[in-house]
Amino acid sequence: MIDLEDELILLPGPVPVVPRILRAISRPMINHRGEKFKEMLERITQALKEIMRTENDVFVLSGSGSCGMEAAISNLIKGDKILAISNGKFGDRFIDIAGRYGDVIPLEYEWGRSIELEDVREVVEREKDLKAIAMVHNETSCGITNPAPQVAAIAREYDLLFVMDGITSIGGMDVRVDEWGVDIAIVGSQKCLGAPPGLCAVAVSERAWDRMVESPPLYMDLRAYRKSAGKGQTPYTPALPLFFALDEALAIVMEEGLDARIRRHMHLASMVRDAIRRWGLELFPRLNEVSSYSNTVTAIKIPEGITVDELRREVKQKGITIAGGQEHLKGKIFRIGTMGNLQEKDVLVVLTVLERVLEARGVV
């Protein structure tokens, strides 16, 4: 049996949590209405603003990335028309969420196929009363990075709000919330930031504040977060151990330097892609000139001679966890995450084990 403390996980989240962050979780509880929490929240907020490259308001919610997605939609949409773009599982989630709060206009592609900007513009011009566009920047279900800056520019051209899921890109890729014109951006704790799951953060522009609905869901009411932030608090009881962990994780990001962290993510992903090509395997996404392979997760078509379940089981026996495909991609692709605080040596270990497994099956 593999010792869980020695297991190496290369998933599209959650990511391995380094001992320094694990120790932070065990800190004694504090008064979440007191001065210590206020100081911690100020550190967290300032660090997130630097990582998101924004001067907008930033709030941390005790909930996963999906909580942030729903907070964004539910504070902007109440019966309004919204364009939700999807080429993967999490784009589909945006469509689902948007459909619960408003009149969703879906622009759907086959999972892993690139978004076409002409299609976006065509829908925007056809649907004259749209209020917003929602899109996933980095779609981990199929390893593709979508053209967020270009879609944001279309939204601004037509005076629409732009909501961006940056859950698996912010902190590991060059994301510029203000420069791109993102009205609400979302990041998850358990991805590139390297913290445990359970928290998300949203950055909210002044344009978004001006167009928010009345009476959004109580727990995700962003106006309540804005009001409480003025006192250095959250409106509802925060998940304190996870805040301790996020505080420490963000300190690590700051110590490494954001640009260096982004370069490391790029390097680790290129190591995986180079190995895949060297072995004669095929990357999954179909790219166009405005999309790219993700630098936080690589999706690979499963070759003849081995199944995804067999591959995952055999590398699992060596103490390594990788991901398979989701829903209709199950059994067709496998995925290797390269986000958080993973280092080159970790990826080298995984690639060595993968190559040996594939060689033993006569695949490479």
UniProtKB/TrEMBL annotation:
Transmembrane domains' residue ranges: none
Gene Ontology molecular-function annotations: alanine-glyoxylate transaminase activity; L-serine-pyruvate transaminase activity
InterPro entries recorded: Aminotrans_V_dom (IPR000192), PyrdxlP-dep_Trfase (IPR015424), PyrdxlP-dep_Trfase_major (IPR015421), PyrdxlP-dep_Trfase_small (IPR015422), SP_NH2Trfase/AEP_transaminase (IPR024169)
Keywords: Aminotransferase, Pyridoxal phosphate, Transferase
Superkingdom per UniProt: Archaea
Needed co-factor(s): pyridoxal 5'-phosphate
Aminotransferase class V domain span: 29-327
One Gene Ontology biological process: glycine biosynthetic process, by transamination of glyoxylate
Family of this protein: Belongs to the class-V pyridoxal-phosphate-dependent aminotransferase family.
Protein name (Swiss-Prot/TrEMBL): Alanine--glyoxylate aminotransferase family protein
UniProt organism field: Candidatus Syntropharchaeum butanivorans
